[in-house]
Amino acid sequence: MRGFFSVDYEPDASVAPGEPISFRALSSGWKWDPGDESTRPEGAGHALAGPFEVRGAKAGQTLVVGIDEVTPRTWGETFGDGERFEWRLDGDMWRLGAHLVPSAPFLGVIGMPPPEPGEHSTIPPRRWGGNIDCKLLVAGSTLYLPIPVDGALLMAGDGHGAQGDGEVSGTAIECPLERARLTLEVSDIELRSPIARTEDAWVAFGFDEDLDAAAAQATETMLDLMERELGLARKEALALASVSVDLHVTQIVNVTKGVHAILGA
């Protein structure tokens, strides 16, 4: 596990396009069991697996991340204004006392390092992915990320058992993962920011410290997608988006805020 992104790290594994990777992950608090002491190194962020090199991937291309499996352990924790609340997985529901929430596990962090040398924080999402914290990226979804460096050097972790849009306390159900499996491919499509394909929608992301700017970026990326996928002129895409695309606040707690635009398929 590493707590930073860095182009300087040696890859943990090298795979060909189309070859899956599997890993376990500690919780965002660097724990495997609830009573464990955190093993987080000083200054580190999320506990991430990788980097995983994708052979032949070049900067400027797009990494296609198929999310095949995200299996949480049976416990998780959420913090509310400094107070810890522990959840237990009960079948397909998370239980907190008398409260039940449907389990919808996903990886909060899927991304690649900035091209500059040195170690970079895992906290803010970037054009190349990272701490996106989007609850739609469950197993069966596909995430498309602009590649910043040759080999891609993907890192992933930060298991979430469930989360609401906004992640308003700063934490989801933060849980370790028994197993995550991703399939990595490479594409030549051009992206200004990440997009995703879920079972029933296209999703476009925007990131900025200013929420309005993040919303504008998500919208422009969605219009790019609509032009490409639907063969629309830009102004027609904008008119259609105004009545068929929903903007959601992904999260407001990671310095760089996130907005995702959703177009139902």
Describe it:
- This protein is mainly beta.
- It has two domains: 13-57 and 69-126 and 148-182, Jelly Rolls; 195-264, Endonuclease I-creI, CATH 3.10.28.
- Helix content is 12%, strand content 40%.
- It contains two helices and 17 strands.
- It has helices spanning 211-230, 234-244, and strands at residues 13-15, 20-25, 48-54, 62-72, 75-80, 83-90, 93-96, 99-102, 106-111, 129-131, 142-146, 154-160, 177-187, 195-197, 201-208, 245-251, 257-264.
- The strands form three sheets. An eight-stranded antiparallel sheet has the order 2-13-4-11-14-15-17-16. Strands 1-3-12-9-10 form a five-stranded mixed sheet, with no helix packed on it. A four-stranded antiparallel sheet has the order 5-6-7-8, with no helix packed on it.
- Strand 6 (83-90) and strand 7 form a beta hairpin.
- It is globular.
- The model has no long low-confidence stretch (mean pLDDT 97).
List the helices and strands and how they pair.
Elements: E1 13-15, E2 20-25, E3 48-54, E4 62-72, E5 75-80, E6 83-90, E7 93-96, E8 99-102, E9 106-111, E10 129-131, E11 142-146, E12 154-160, E13 177-187, E14 195-197, E15 201-208, H1 211-230, H2 234-244, E16 245-251, E17 257-264
Parallel strand pairs: 1-3
Antiparallel strand pairs: 2-13, 3-12, 4-11, 4-13, 5-6, 6-7, 7-8, 9-10, 9-12, 11-14, 14-15, 15-17, 16-17
